[in-house]
Amino acid sequence: MTGGARRVTTPDGVDLALHRLRAYRDGRPAVLLVHGAFTNHHFWLHAGMAHFLGAAGFDIWLADLRHHGESAREPRRGAWTFEDWVLHDTPTIVARVREETDGAPLAWLGHSAGGAAGLCWLARVAAAAPIRCIVTLGTPGPRRLGPVRRSLAAATMAVSRLLGRFPARSLRFGNEDEAAEIIAEWMEWNVRGRWIGTDGFDYFAGLAALSTPYLGVAGRRAGRWSSASAPAARSW
After folding, report:
1. Kind and range of the H or E element at 23?
2. How far apart are the C-alpha atoms of 200 and 132, rounded to whole Å?
3. Alpha carbon distance 186, 86 (integer Å)
4. 3-class SS at 226?
């Protein structure tokens, strides 16, 4: 990557890595690619999405959320939760991208939990969101979880809290084990059927009032949150 890696620090003091394919300063639209659980920014490189979008003329940025890739690892068992991605990592990364692109149009492209983190952050900031649109790929939600999916989510929570991590590498789910409470909190929301923050904030209610263009992409067997009544994606 010719643009190189940056180090950014969240409000709670966590060191994150942010990568850029190539340095531009011409105001072209930027795309921030955010990985999901069990992986890191290399997901987008191996899948080819980063290079495809770069060849199409976008300014490509790739994030490593806490406990992933080149970002800091959890200092102790149970120290971090999924909401730390939402409340700390997301605004820090977005602010740095906008600073270096001089406020060029910015889109969020998130895979699985990376899509959920972006949606939850948007629900919090609402009309003040400094991005033009959000796209999620395979991001599940709790609205239509059947008994099998609910059981799998509950099992994920139990295993994670027992081991202090989710053993994704051993199970061949991905190339990184997930911090216990990061994955467990998200799964708990899905099992309960409500995305509620520790402060009582209702993320679904926040999303209902959101006007940011949104496109949810899912396969036939993927989570079906994308069928919810979010605003349709439009030109940005």
Report:
1. none
2. 27
3. 11
4. helix
- Give the pLDDT score at 2: 57
Determine the Cα–Cα distance for residues 118 and 5; give it in Å rounded to an integer: 21
Single-letter amino acid code for the residue at 130: P
Helix axes 113-125, 180-192, angle to 10 degrees: 70
| The CATH number of domain 4-140+204-222, selected from 3.40.50.1820, 3.90.1150.10, 3.30.930.10, 3.30.1220.10 | 3.40.50.1820
Six token digits for residue 136: 């999620």
Extract the residue ranges of the chain whose pLDDT is less than 50: 222-236
SS (H, E, C) 132-187: CEEEEECCCCCCCCCHHHHHHHHHHHHHHHHHCEECHHHHCCCCCCEEHHHHHHHH
CA distances (Å), origin 206, targets 159, 189, 225? 31, 15, 15
Enumerate residues 6+ apart whose C-beta is below 8 A from 46: none
Amino acid in position 131: I
Percent of the chain exceeding pLDDT 90 equals 73
pLDDT at 209: 85
**Beta-strand relationship, 106-111 and 178-179:** unpaired
Q: Is the dihedral of CA 172, 176, 181, 182 positive or negative?
A: negative
